[in-house]
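Reminder to self: keep the SMILES exactly as supplied, no canonicalising. Ligand is 2'-deoxyuridine.
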Amino acid sequence: MDNKELIRKAIDGLKYSYAPYSNFNVSAVLVAKDGSIYTGCNIENAAYTPSNCAERTAFFKAVSEGVKEFETIIIVAGKGGKVENITAPCGVCRQVMMEFCDPKTFKIILAKSEEEYKEFTLEELLPLGFGPGDLIEN
Ligand SMILES: O=c1ccn([C@H]2C[C@H](O)[C@@H](CO)O2)c(=O)[nH]1
Ligand SMILES: [Zn+2]
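C-alpha cells returned for the bound complex:
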C-alpha cells in the first residue's frame, strides 16, 4: 500500500474509535517489515486511566500476534472524527515505539488528508530516547 492508501485506511478506522469522554477520535495504521498491517483506535474508559491510545492499540495487536519489526505508522485524529490538523503521538506511545523500532528509520506519518501529511523519524519525535539498547548488550 502506498502512503495515500494507508492514510485512507487510517481515516476509515476513525469510525471504530471509542472516545465518549474526550470525543477526540484517533486512528493508527501500523505497517510491519513483513508487509502486514495492524490497525488501532483509541479506547477510552469511564475510569479514565485505563484508556489506551490508537498507536499502542496497533502496536499491542501486532506484538501479541508475534510481529515485532516495524516500518511505518500513520496517525490521524480529530474531534468528532473530523480531521482538521495533524496530531502527534503522546510521550507514552513514543516510548512504546522506542521499544520495537529503530529510531533512525521508523517513519511516523502524521496526516490531515491523503494529500497533506508530515513525515518524521522516531528519533525526530523522541530525541535521545531510552530504549532496549540501554539495558541489553547487542
Ligand atoms: O496521539 C494520540 C493522542 C491522544 N490519543 C487519545 C487518548 C484519548 O483517548 C484521547 C484524548 O487524549 O485521544 C491517542 O489515541 N493518540
Ligand atoms: Zn499515546
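Points to follow up:
The longest strand covers residues 70-79.
The chain has one domain: 3-134.
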